[in-house]
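Annex B, item 7. Sequence and structure tokens for protein A, then protein B.
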Amino acid sequence: MSESQTSRPDDSPTSRIPLDPLLAGALLLIGVATLVPLHGPSGSSRIYWTLEFGDALRNIGLYVPFGVAWLAGHRSLAAGVVGALLLSTGIELLQLALPGRFSNPWDIASNATGALLGGVLWRERRRWLRPSKPLALGMALACGAAIGLSGLAVGWLRVPFIEELRIDSHWTPDFRYLSHYQGEVTGAAMNGIRLPHGRLAHGGPIREALSGEFDLRVIGRVGPEPPRPGILFLITDGRKRDLLAIIVEGSDLWVTYGDRAREFGLVPPRLPLVDALADAAPGNPLYVHLERRTEGFCLRVNGLEKCGLGYSAADSWTLLVPFSVPTPWAGALWLALMALPLGFWSRGPAAMLGALALALLGLIAAPLFFPLLPTRFIHLLAILAGAALGAGLQRATVGSP
């Protein structure tokens, strides 16, 4: 039989649409981000119809790699968008039966938008990989401005946001989506004002304290480690929104509060004290002292203390990543990644210096206007390192202009 009469595997129709590693990686990323069960009720069958900026932004970013991988395999852009629609529809249906997951039909539209954006980025890659000099200058300056503005955005979004007049205090409340912490609260006070369980008759001073500096003290007894996070102490407004919460998770204790980020559907704050209750047996006395000052939070639990808790201008990534905890090294890595395109698109020292000036100015100025931790030197170095790496990558892959 001649070679022309045989069908080689590489020429078969199915071999032209393989599940290549890039697409498999994009699908794995989507699966982990959307189908892993979380803390919460099982089989809730709840559907949200609210379009939130934060959710839409995360979904678009999640499906951009899918769109890139789809077109990188020489596939149709239209087919990629249809595939994203079908994939996300199936995921939304599965989420109805997964613990801690809630379905939102708006996610389908944002997922398809992400796939479309990723496909267009791949199809038009020559334009942004090899831009003209004026376009490259504009993109480098825009990247520098985006880094600087991200620092200012963290400060504005992490500011406490309180608009309701009613204030309620809760001692070890039992909520369906969390464990009921079996410890005990016997007393709580903020700035010397007692906080009994229930509605506060005079919430004005507490509302003012939550908007600025405060000194909170909670006393009680330690309970057994909860299987899921459980609330020790909580302050809510009239719409049942968390204004301040002290949460026990295993032997850790962490603090969250209501900020502007929540109003946009972004990730709420999460400030932990690891192993705060590791040496405390159930029934032991519990003393929690939480202070918020200009320099951040200070959390003390039974003699264990951690101060300087809070956010810096480098922590814009925490607004998008669920369950994220700000750390100096994570912030440095994020800034270095953000600075990569800055260096890649800079053509010459003048463009590089201009873009870096915009980035550094925003990060340094943000703590002057908002209650953020001071920008660390390591974060400024990370921007310089990322820009240098981007410039080197440009020369290695495209060639110097």
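Protein B:
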Amino acid sequence: MALVVTIVILIILATISVNIVLNGALANRTQRGKEMHELEREKERLELIKADVASNRNYLGKVTVDTYIEELINQRITTTEEITDNGEGSKTVITDTNYNVLIEPNGENDVKITIDGKVGALLPRIKNVKTEVVETAKIKITVEAIRADKYKYEYKIDDGNEESGWITIEDNSTSTTVTTPTLNEEEKYMIRVTITGENGTATQIVKIANIRKETYTVKYTDGLDGAVFGDVECGSLEKGSDTPGFGKNPTRKGYTFMGWAPAISEKVTEDVTYTATWRKNTYTVTYTDGVTGEIVFDDQVYEDLEEDSDTPEFEGTPSREGYTFEGWAPAIDGKVTEDVTYTATWSKNT
């Protein structure tokens, strides 16, 4: 009896084992079938997008690596962050379904698309760390990252040791400002940025050679060795600050101020001298007979007369039949100060 029971038990166990193996094999086959089906669907989708590019007038019917990827971005199948330039014209993208896709030129008007399996969990990635010395010993750090939830900033003097001595900044934003010790403004510093996302972390170290803010001098000069006004200098101006103005436009007797050379820049970017430019004032003096309907004498016109030069005299003596010349109106100024017309005045003889 015991033998029969043992045999029955062995048969049951064998049956269970066979079923487990069969079920496992079936599950594996089902999973592989599912994966193959997804892969075929992905291939079909990517090929259809190539057809979209070929028929899109915006691309002029040209299917290139760049136009194809542009269309992938337009259809939100990938993003600029998930593109890797492999060189020699080929690029790799990660699609929204986590497929790793190699795109290569295939002649002048086609691309070859190769799906290289699925990628694992997408890790956070630091795209760029920008540092700017906003003032001496104060550094602004701006981070561009993807798939990041937390940000950590650290800094230290660049002593060649990246393992220890870091000072942590309590901040969890995409941008922060570090105020470093100012005992030695020429010290080199290191900034370490660590980001954390759902699937891991990423770290990047950047080095700053000088924490001194660049400053410049802006000077205004009359261009005449100080004959009109002394030089006006504005020093210790930080790069990118507003250019200080001169104030009211300068004046020079006998000249008109025409502006500054070079033209004033809106922002300070370098040491610069702005020189006043001038145009010499010239005027016209006219003598006329003031008589309507007849010509007693032709107008005498003197042009291009410099300011404060002597007023030219009327050539000859005005005379008019039946009249006595009484003088000029207005009275002649001895110096040229403006455009002026002097009109002869007459009294009728009796």
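Comment on protein B: The chain has a mean pLDDT of 85.
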